[in-house]
Design a protein that fits this description.
Elements (H helix, E strand, L loop, with lengths): L6 H6 L9 E2 L3 E5 L7 E7 L12 H18 L6 E4 L3 H4 L8 E5 L9
Antiparallel strand pairs: 1-2, 2-3, 3-5, 4-5
The chain binds guanosine-5'-monophosphate and zinc ion.
Length: about 110
C-alpha cells in the first residue's frame, strides 16, 4: 500500500515533512509546492494508488470528496467556490503517480482548461 520510491507516499508517511491543511487516518491535504492559484492544495489518500484508474472501491472516492469539502471549509473558500482537478495518466498531464485531487481557489478559474 506504500511505494518507497513515491514522493507522495514519503509525504504521507512523514518522511518528507509538510504542514497539513487537514488530515485523518486515510487522507492528507497539503499545499502544492508550485501553486497555480492563491490557494492550491493537494488531497491524497495515504495509501498508494498510482492513478484514479487503480481505485476499485467507490467508497474511497466518496470519502476523498468529503475530505475536499472539509478542506475547502477549513480554507474558507467553500462559499466563494473553487475547482477540483484529477489529472490522469499521460493525456491528463499527470506527473506524480500517486492519486491526488488538486483543489484550486482564491481566484476566478477560466474554462476550458489548458
Ligand atoms: P500532477 O501534474 O501529477 O497532477 O500534479 C502533481 C503536483 O504535485 C504538481 O502540482 C506539483 O507542483 C506537486 N508536487 C510535486 N512534488 C511535490 C512535493 O514534493 N511537495 C509538494 N507539496 N507538491 C509537490
Ligand atoms: Zn505513493
Amino acid at each position: 500500500m506504500t511505494d518507497p520510491q513515491c514522493v507522495f507516499c514519503q509525504i504521507a508517511t512523514g518522511q518528507i515533512p509538510v504542514d497539513p491543511v487537514f488530515q485523518n487516518e486515510e487522507f492528507l491535504a497539503f499545499r502544492d509546492i508550485n501553486p497555480q492559484a492563491p490557494v492550491h492544495v493537494l488531497v491524497i489518500p495515504k495509501a498508494h494508488y498510482p492513478t484514479l484508474m487503480e481505485v476499485n472501491d467507490p467508497q474511497v472516492l466518496g470519502r476523498a470528496l468529503r475530505v475536499v469539502q472539509e478542506t475547502v471549509t477549513l480554507l474558507g473558500i467553500d462559499r466563494e467556490g473553487f475547482r477540483t482537478v484529477i489529472n490522469c495518466r499521460a493525456n491528463g498531464g499527470q506527473t506524480v503517480f500517486h492519486l491526488h485531487i488538486h483543489v484550486l481557489g482564491g481566484r476566478h478559474m477560466q474554462w476550458p482548461p489548458g
